[in-house]
Structure prediction request, 515 residues.
Amino acid sequence: MSEKELKNIDEEIKYLKHCLDTFENLQKEFLIKAELIIDDCKEGKTTKFLKHCDDIERLNGRFNPALSSVESFYKTTYKAKRNLDNLLSFACKFSGYIDSLNLYSKYFKESIQKAIILLNEEKDILKKQNSSTNLKEKDILKKEFLEKEKQIFEIYKNNSKFDLLNYDLKHFFNSIKYDAIKMWHFICNKKLLSISSILFLGSILCVPYFIIENKVPSISFDELYFALIVVFAFGFLTLFYIGVIFLYQNYLLFDISKYNKTAINHAYIYIYHLLFLTSLLLIVCNSLKDNLLILLFSLMAVLSLFFAIYSSFKSKTISNTILFLLLIFISDFLFFAIVKFRSDEIDVLALIMFVIIWFFARLLSMLKIFEYSLQGFFAILILFVILLFLHKDFVRLAGIANYDANYIVPTKFIPKHILDSNLSKCDKDNETCIIKFDENLTMLKNVKVVVKSDEKYFLKLNKQPFECEKFNDKIKCNDDIFNAHDLKCKNIKENGLECEYSYPIFEINQKNIVN
Prediction:
């Protein structure tokens, strides 16, 4: 394996040296022509000026790598050819461009020379690694090799206009390895996986829930200890899922789009995310009919399929294209499902910010170099939004709040409006119903425990939305009649309403609970 790697490194060094020689020769020729153009401008020789402009433009096709400074030269020469009366002003501007080119050329050549030095150092490391029999020494040499790979990748990333012939991809993967190992060592050295750190991180995931509810939970340390470990484990799995789906999906988008640098790439991202955001906003605002939802989903699916087929013809990477489509559907349509079933809990501004982050992350996937550190930053932002959104699930999973329970309570301690709430029918297993045993005792079945705080249970009726209709100045739901202020309703059809109970959270003292 090391022999093959050594051969690949030799080929890369040879290519870099060839590019340096070509660059230096073209630069010399370019500067000679540029000086002639300046002289022509100062002396007013329009015929020679046009000829030298044509010469310098022909260098464009041979100039590899292409530099932004060189592109500025060509744009300026085209303007000058259309305005020959202003040649003296053009000469001053052209001199400034030459200075800019010289500065950039110095930086570029130093960067490539440094890359060649690093590649030669990699060869020495591989030779030592191949001859060594000491496992510890081999491990040290491997880390040194990955560090060199990281440095080379940074050089290539900062010279992204340079034609890299896919050499950057090998360094890209090794650079990720280096950063991953470094991060793991940091986690181990700082003892971030110690029990105390796990408990702290688990508590951080639960804090948003209690801030929103404005209650401090009452829970014993023994219960809290195990609960926070469970929450941390769930949060870690969420982090892993986001990392795999988000980062790998964007890498695949980079991989299949790098072969067709056209406006179609950007058009796909813009149109797809416009449809994506429109669908989510309509869901949250309860304005999306099923037929329109199907239409928007179909447009997004067709658009993604068209882009994938087009890209696969250009790149010949059908497997990556299929995998990209699968990840798009898994991530985006799973998010659709979450928003659909929790539309009442979602803040519109947070949703818009989520889609904007998602949009820019995918747009930046189409750069010439895959900026995995930047993508990691976007992944952290996405994860932060999702973890905030899942705070209710964290506390419910840990069993410290937001869970369902059955309590038998003396009737006199239950608020009158709860007893009169027409919840005597236990139609569904996950909905609250009130069962009166006698005049003195009542069971609250499947009641939502918002939080236990200060030796009190703060409870909420757990009832799914149900269909109703207007009945004079009241609301009729099946055979039950309600006052308008007892329900929270929204229109779903011409005369129909979808309602849920608007009763506030009520409290029961722990000592008043019989069971």
